DNA sequence: AGACTGCTGTTACCGCAAGTAACGTCATGC
DNA sequence: GCATGACGTTACTTGCGGTAACAGCAGTCT
């Protein structure tokens, strides 16, 4: 494989190899969960451990590379829903539904992506707090915050408000989705509608129940 | 120490010992993070590993016992805010503030509590999906859902709606809090107000920004 | 008294996973 | 011809969760 050929398929042999290794790792992780061992992944790829370490440094590096692929894919689906031509309520519902449909269709990928960083390589003393969330959640929160800031008129302090809302909405979606995925208490459509209602202020509008002070 | 004495301090020697071990474990976990080893914990308690295993079964058992203590403490703080005599908006803000003040004051405890189950003892094949969230989040979500169902008049399907909202609101609070704790982009009071505004439907009310379709 | 029970605690080990060192092998560029 | 460097191996170290197997030391029952 010479330079000319390499130019046609846009991949150096090293990149090609890396892709193959990632695909093997993907299969194992999707089968065994996030606790898949490096030995198992190497075996699936038909090689042995040290090669994985040469390519990805350590386990965290491999997992980060894997997560980035899936995260990018999910984020582009979400961006498509967010950009659909419809009113705001419909867009929110479409985005929620896209997210929920994704985690419903590929629960193992979801599970893998939600595993927190683990590595941390503790900086100085103590351990980094406030970094528990999976990188996927951070990215979704940041992107949503940006979209809100761009499109919604929030008056003064809009920037801060939009970021808070971005992370808050993403967290709402995630927690409700995780719970729903485990218990399946209702259909996806019902869940989407309920969450959208929540964002549309129905909690504030609802009356107190007879017989006590309101929530 | 005979039975009569035991009755006065309400603890069998075994329970007393267990408490001591838990306190030692607490110190280590708060110092070293969730990756504290059983050896380290045993050393802190002045004993060796097998004793820990006799008391708690396995690492998950110890961590569960630790987590339950802290979770109970946090939940009772939250219940107090939730039951304060004020209108609904003030209660929501008080509860958000209580949660955020707690994680701000004891970030290591927070970090520890948010670590997912890990154990799983995989049932049949595959791994349990939809159980990523920390038990604390599940418990908060369920309790909040119950409170909403009790106090807010939601019409038909109120039960399901309330549980969804409970988990959704808890997730919102958690994700926003985690992000805030890491970046400190604003004061706690501002964060509380923004999140309450979100729940009060300000996203729905806000106008589109000039120059594009609305979010 | 003496045996039995049940708790405290120990040392020494197993199995397994992450990560590394040291060594071969083969194509490429000079 | 030969050095460079990627691809690959075996064999090792370290550290962790978890478990035997054993020892001392109450109290308790006969």
Automatic annotation (TrEMBL), chains A, B:
Lineage: superkingdom: Bacteria
Keyword terms, alphabetized: DNA-binding
Family annotation (InterPro entries): DNA-bd_HTH_TetR-type_CS, Homeodomain-like_sf, HTH-type_TetR-like_transc_reg, HTH_TetR, Tet_transcr_reg_TetR-rel_C_sf, TetR_C_32
Domain HTH tetR-type: 15-74
SUPFAM superfamilies in UniProt: Homeodomain-like (SSF46689), Tetracyclin repressor-like, C-terminal domain (SSF48498)
Pfam families: TetR_C_32 (PF19344), TetR_N (PF00440)
DNA-binding region: 37-56
Protein name: TetR/AcrR family transcriptional regulator
